[in-house]
Design a protein that fits this description.
CATH topology of the largest domain: Rossmann fold
CATH class of the largest domain: Alpha Beta
Number of helices: 14
Distance between the termini: 68 Å
Strand content: 15-25%
Shape: elongated
Strand order of the largest sheet: 3-2-1-4-5
Largest sheet: 5 strands, parallel
Structural class: alpha+beta
CATH superfamily of the largest domain: HUPs
Radius of gyration: 28 Å
CATH architecture of the largest domain: 3-Layer(aba) Sandwich
Number of domains: 3
Helix content: 40-55%
């Protein structure tokens, strides 16, 4: 066995040994060289480090050869005695992410659906893939996060995964597959140079390799340096967040602005990461930075797909995209059964102090509602919410609870916001 072949098996053995006993390893199996070899190596490793092992094939249905991929995966898994799960997906190309991006989103949705808590997903990318990823990121003007390419170990946040073969060149994988007599299927779409990655792989990288024979190794090394730099930046951002109070969803603007502009941007991205929220495009982030200097009474809101930022009362709030409460929505409720709204279901209760059964009607806040408060008389709901410091976006998602035509409470996904005299909530 060659030293590279030994290294391949050793890397897989280490990755499997580090998997907690009893937790399943899922190998993403496309039917190509990389994943077919990874699964074969994983089976060998499982004889030395007993771990549950399964294969997952995603049938995209994007080309006639898709059925051939599935057939090959079934034959390979039968030969290796590995359970195979096949998931058929529909790729939505209307999202603006392009075919590659849409297919990636579809795969990630399947991964999240299939893996249980504690499971790990294994992906078969290798060093040449890493070099291509680095080039693509550089050509798109990415920062250290993009230049860092693909991670070999599980991310701090997100789907747990490993890439045991990431440091090995494709040539080593080809040699080991030939030595073992492993068959695989070449994806015809990999020759389509209209796709950016394929263009780099077939047109640009060969020219680079001709001039610099170690091009892929050098590019992958640069990705590793970028990953290290990204890790250090993450540590710096975590320290800044701790100094600013430790609340990733709410930063005091005055404290944030004491940092340099670069550290402000870094901290905002870090806080979004901590909350598993989407990062903003560069232009959106710059727009947000500019609006941090808005006058105190301005209601700043900067949105991007999957998240939004708001500035209110001297604080920057980083939030998931907030859905509005439909103005036509109505809900009849007994105050005890689960409260179901278009914004979610809540295990909250509302009852009269005397314990008498009630028939309640919930509706969105229209404006002008008044509640009877103990020792304060009739109070305008809008003013009550302002006095309690309820943010404007929660006021906009507020519903009012009516009993016999009288407003008795107000609530939102944040909880109960106001209660009338004679009522209690839990």
């Amino acid at each position: 066995m060659s030293s590279e072949a030994s290294s391949l098996q050793h890397r897989v053995d280490i990755a499997l040994a580090e998997t907690p006993p009893g937790h399943c390893v899922w190998v993403a199996l496309s039917g190509g060289l990389d994943s077919s070899l990874l699964l074969t190596l994983a089976v060998d490793a499982s004889r030395r480090h007993a771990r549950p092992l399964r294969a997952l094939h995603i049938h995209h249905g994007l080309q006639p050869a898709a059925d051939d991929f599935e057939r090959h995966c079934r034959l390979l898994c039968d030969a290796l005695a590995v359970p195979l799960h096949v998931e058929r997906v529909s790729v939505d190309t209307s999202t603006g992410e392009g075919l590659e991006g849409a297919a990636r989103q579809a795969r990630q949705a399947v991964f999240r659906q299939c893996l249980s808590a504690g499971d790990t997903l294994w992906l078969a990318q290798h060093r040449d893939d890493q070099a291509e990823t680095f080039l693509l990121a550089a050509l798109r003007g990415a920062g250290t996060r993009g230049l860092a390419g693909m991670s070999q170990r599980p991310p701090r946040i997100g789907l747990p995964h490993r890439r045991p073969l990431l440091g090995m060149p494709r040539a080593a994988l080809e040699a080991e597959a030939a030595r073992r007599g492993i068959d695989w299927i070449e994806d015809p779409s990999n020759r389509d140079t209209r796709q950016d990655r394929n263009f780099l792989r077939h047109r640009i990288v060969p020219l680079l390799r001709e001039r610099w024979p170690a091009a892929e190794r050098s590019l992958a090394r640069s990705a590793a340096w970028a990953a290290e730099a990204e890790g250090l930046l993450g540590e710096l951002a975590a320290e800044d967040l701790a100094r600013l109070g430790g609340q990733a969803g709410c930063l005091r603007v005055a404290s944030l602005r004491r940092l340099s502009a670069a550290r402000q941007r870094l901290l905002i991205r870090h806080c979004l990461d901590v909350q598993a929220l989407a990062l903003p495009p560069a232009a959106r982030l710059e727009s947000l930075m500019a609006q941090l200097e808005a006058r105190p009474d301005a209601e700043v809101c900067v949105r991007w797909p999957g998240a939004e930022a708001r500035v209110w009362r001297g604080a920057l709030y980083l939030l998931p995209t907030l859905a509005p409460l439909p103005m036509a929505w109505r809900f009849d409720w007994d105050g005890q059964s689960p409260l179901v709204t278009p914004l979610g279901a809540f295990a909250w209760r509302l009852q009269r102090d005397d314990g008498q059964p009630v028939r309640l009607r919930l509706a969105p806040r229209q404006g002008g509602e008044r509640l009877q408060l103990a020792r304060r008389g009739q109070r305008d709901l809008k003013r009550l919410l302002q006095e309690q410091g309820v943010p404007p976006w929660e006021r906009q998602r507020c519903w009012v609870v009516w009993h016999a035509g009288v407003a008795v409470a107000a609530g939102s996904p944040a909880g109960w916001l106001a209660l009338a005299e004679g009522w209690r909530a839990s």
